[in-house]
Design brief:
globular; mainly alpha; two-stranded antiparallel sheet; about 550 residues
């Protein structure tokens, strides 16, 4: 029976066992389809922003340096994921998942409007002010104290409006991400874990289909036609996503907010680590009185329960115990996300300094192969492999009792992301050797880049490897976050999953800032022939070591 306030459509009624036998999604196809289409359009909008943001900010009239543009993108993705726990708490404690998703999509749409306005010259002048001419400086003349005469670089034009748009979109994205995943899984949760596992497979498939739509079409338009049109399209996508989800309300299984365990987490943690023991509570086992004592590991949280003399209900304490078990896995995924987010930042910068082929065009202006298209190879690989995994590989493994657990799949994913980072590092070493001998000039999106005479196709292995890692680590991470979360914390814990992803993005941004220091000199301007050596770092080894640890947990 549905809980108080829970709304289940008539399409979802009937004999559960018979429905499971026929299909995991029978009677729920419209609801699941609306969720998957919303996520597809949302991802198309998201990648419409991120795919060419570095190129957009590199070009005129912004002229941001490569490291500055990459940092802006990494900070945007970090904010996107860091706000996810708040979005989850908002749904669990106050609004419910469906209402929170509707409001966050509206905020998302508001932020998306900033990008075509910044890209269009007429509205950009009103938002950003007049463009200041670059100051010519004599960099060879030192100051009397011996310091350099030149500034580090020109100020970032239109930075306030750009960051404001990124922050508003980030708030919307983070709140949507925290809630749409568990909300979609709620539509089939009563069909059992097999239905939930299959939903996550197809949910991730929809994510990557949205990425292909955006990277395949929008990125091409942005690079070769117009950034104004290229940003209008993702704005329309998020508007359609809002309409689809709003109109699907009558088909959804919705649950009212029943409170979030996060409101009691800190109280329970504080009480468990320093519980005040009463005389009557411990007279039978001879413990001292009036002293702040730490319980044994087994009873650390049990001492908070009302049945043990504590002030908290049994189910709230069990929720906190589940949270404590989940967080170490999320922490272990930080190195994975640090490497993963390089795919949209430093991997793209690397491609701009490799030989990018021209492609035929019906216009007189020559068009070039979009650098963001290589990210599409990752998405295409996932689109091909997920149906194969869902329909063939997983059923065979399950029948033979060999289907690996979520943690083991995360460990395998970490191994592949390590291989991707090493492949990028090896390619970068070869690229730097070649540019010392010969460079070529290429114009990408009206920006001139000095590149090595080495085809961009040499990047394919690193994108293929990171795509394989997603199939294992990212899907398994979503499944683990949902299945291990207590009912009152599903959205909040999904938000925590993305929160730690954001930490990984900020770690990558910090590393990028470090290697951009002139004393290190690994990354300089976007035209610098020595740009982009940020892959040779301890991150791959850290990801591999943690992957081995996770694989041995169960």
């Amino acid at each position: 029976m549905a809980g108080l306030g829970e709304r289940t459509p008539l399409l979802g009624s009937g004999n559960h066992g018979a429905r499971r036998a026929s299909s995991a999604f029978a009677g729920r196809r419209v609801a699941c389809g609306a969720v998957l289409l919303t996520e597809l359009l949302e991802r198309a909008a998201f990648y419409g922003v991120t795919a060419n943001l570095v190129l957009f900010l590199n070009g005129a009239p912004f002229n941001w340096e490569g490291a500055q543009a990459s940092q802006a993108l990494l900070l945007f993705m970090g904010v996107t994921y860091l706000v996810s726990p708040f979005g989850g708490w908002l749904a669990d404690a106050l609004l419910g998942k469906a209402s929170t998703i509707v409001l966050s999509l509206a905020l998302y749409l508001l932020g998306m409007l900033a990008f075509p306005l910044v890209a269009a010259p007429s509205t950009r002048a009103a938002l950003c002010g007049p463009l200041r001419p670059a100051r010519i400086e004599n960099c060879s003349a030192p100051f009397p104290n011996g310091s350099a005469a030149c500034h580090d670089g020109p100020p970032r034009y239109c930075a306030p409006a750009t960051f404001a748009g990124l922050v508003i979109v980030g708030l919307g994205v983070g709140t949507v991400k925290a809630n749409i995943t568990p909300f979609g899984a709620d539509q089939v949760k009563d069909r059992g874990p097999e239905a939930t596992r299959r939903f996550f497979n197809w949910f991730y498939w929809s994510i990557n289909l949205g990425a292909i739509v955006s990277l395949g079409g929008v990125a091409y338009i942005q690079q070769n036609v117009s950034f104004v049109i290229g940003y209008v399209i993702p704005t329309v996508c998020i508007g359609v996503a809002f309409v689809v989800f709003f109109c699907g309300q009558s088909f959804f299984i919705t649950k009212p907010p029943d409170g979030s365990a996060f409101t009691d987490v800190f109280k329970i943690l504080a009480y468990s680590f320093c519980p005040q023991k009463r005389i009557g509570e411990h007279r039978s086992n001879g413990q001292g009185t009036g002293v702040c004592q730490q319980s044994s590991k087994h009873s650390l949280f049990d001492s908070c329960k009302m049945s043990r003399g504590g002030p908290f209900a049994e189910e709230k304490v069990e929720d906190v115990k589940a949270l404590v078990k989940i967080v170490p896995v999320f922490l272990a995924l930080i190195p994975y996300w640090t490497v993963y987010f390089q795919m949209q930042t430093t991997y793209v910068l690397q491609s701009l300094h490799l030989k990018i082929p021209a492609i035929s065009s019906i216009t007189t202006t020559p068009h070039t192969f979009p650098a963001a298209w290589l990210t599409m190879f990752d998405a295409v690989l996932i689109l091909l492999l997920i149906p194969l995994k869902d329909k063939l590989v997983d059923p065979v493994l399950k029948r033979n009792g060999l289907l690996p657990s979520s943690l083991k799949r995360i460990a395998v994913g970490m191994f592949f992301v390590m291989c991707s980072a090493f492949a990028a590092g090896i390619l970068e070493s070869k690229r730097l050797d070649l540019v010392k001998e010969k460079t070529i000039n290429q114009t990408i999106g009206n920006v001139v880049y000095y590149a090595a005479d080495l085809p961009i196709w040499w990047q394919l292995p690193q994108y293929v490897l990171i795509g394989i890692s997603e199939i294992f680590a990212s899907i398994a991470g979503l499944e683990f976050a949902y299945s291990a979360a207590p009912k009152s914390m599903q959205s909040a814990i999904m938000g925590l999953f993305f929160f730690f992803s954001g930490i990984g993005s900020f770690v990558g941004s910090g590393l990028l800032a470090l290697v951009s220091v002139k004393a290190i000199g690994w990354m300089s301007s976007h035209a610098d022939i020595a740009a982009g050596s940020a892959w040779a770092s301890p991150r791959p080894a850290a990801a591999a070591a943690i992957g081995i640890y996770l694989g041995n947990l169960d």
